[in-house]
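Contributing new records

If you add data, match the layout below exactly. Sequence lines come first and carry their own label; structure lines follow with theirs. Keep one chain per record. Anything else will be rejected by the validation script.
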Amino acid sequence: MPPLPRPRSLSRWLTVLAIVLLAGCAIAKPRTDDPLEKFNRGAYQFNTAVDEVAIRPVALVYRKVTNPPVRRSFSDFFTNIRTPVTVANDLLQARPKQALQSTARFLVNLTLGIGGFFDPASQLGLPIEDNDFGITLARWGAPEGDFLMLPLFGPSTARDMWRMPVDSYFFDPLSLYAANHHYNGLQYAPQAMYLITLRSRAIDAESFLQSAYDPYVFIRDAYRQQRLYKLYDGNPPAALIERMQGLDTPGFDPDELLEQQHDWEKGHPKQDDQH
């Protein structure tokens, strides 16, 4: 009689089977309500204040002391070095083709791209893909939950909030490097530089936020739509888009909403952005 499999081997195969089964779950419908709006608006105001005092000034200095090619190289480096996050979540979602493509892109940029500071992979037909544990949970069938504006971390949902601890602890090379090296705080320098790079890129889009009738609503809705497009690989069902935009709500009048936006813009003329 052949020996029974060891418990460790059995548990490993049960884990793989669970992942495959979960990956086949139906995706829950997106939420459009905001039951935690009062808390979220307070967190948004807090984040805005912290950004104006501590984060945006550093990003502006970074833009002044670097030129666009240098900033693009740093952006390419951090995008490439975090590719293992995407690959791991592709595997958790049972998407081997995407995982192989992202792995190939990572290796090409790591070698031909001189450590990832350049992006020859895109020229070779290997497009960038961005995946995370929030998308994994969605494709496993986990409901979206309430929208959350997290202090210091920004927009999220009850489902997406788990992407930060899981991706950072298990998959993100920057976080793993910081956790396994101790240089009197300097081990966090790559993560800090990554955040500065992200904030610097966002400065170019500030005019859209400044012209919004309600910046909080603009951020909330933009985040939800961006996650919806990512979940469906850039091609969500038309019915879900209409739901996210409120077009299926009885009594919704887009012309009235547009008029409110125009009235607000008349009372808030645009100011030249100082970079």
